[in-house]
Amino acid sequence: MTTRTKKQSYALETDLVTACHETVVELRDTWGQPIHGERLNQRRADLAGSDRGAPDYLLTAGGRQLPLEFKRAEGGRFSLDQLVAAERRRKAGVETYAPTSVAHFDALWRWALRGHEGVCADCPVVPPP
């Protein structure tokens, strides 16, 4: 079993965010899909004036805005602040998704663009139901 440092673990998560954002840019700019993504200020929420637990990314697709909290597939954990913020969003009628791979992200944007109701069944959420 390999032990990763906090910096290495953060790099894995950052790589996932970057890969998903590149997917959004390609879909929008090359293929003309009605999709947009914004990387929010990771790891610096307090300095940016955001509440603790603010999501990593905001995906806009299919007339929806979907907050995303990226986690690496192995060993990714949510902070208490992230769980509390996601639960508050859920109570306000907004689900927070937690993709752990590009495949999860692909399932989410495809679901959103199709305009399905409810929650994407193939996409992990925060906190898990």
Write a compact overview of the structure shown.
This protein has about 130 residues and is α+β, with helices and mostly antiparallel strands.
pLDDT averaged over residues: 84
* Shape, per Cα inertia axes: globular
CATH class: Alpha Beta
Number of strands: 5
Q: In DSSP terms, counting alpha (H) and pi (I) runs of 4 or more, how many helices?
A: 4
What CATH calls the topology is: Trna Endonuclease, Chain: A, domain 1
The biggest sheet, with number of strands, parallel, antiparallel or mixed sense and barrel status, is: 3 strands, antiparallel
Uncertain segments: none
String of helices and strands: HEHEEHEHE
Percent helix, as a range, is 40-55%
Specify the CATH architecture.
3-Layer(aba) Sandwich
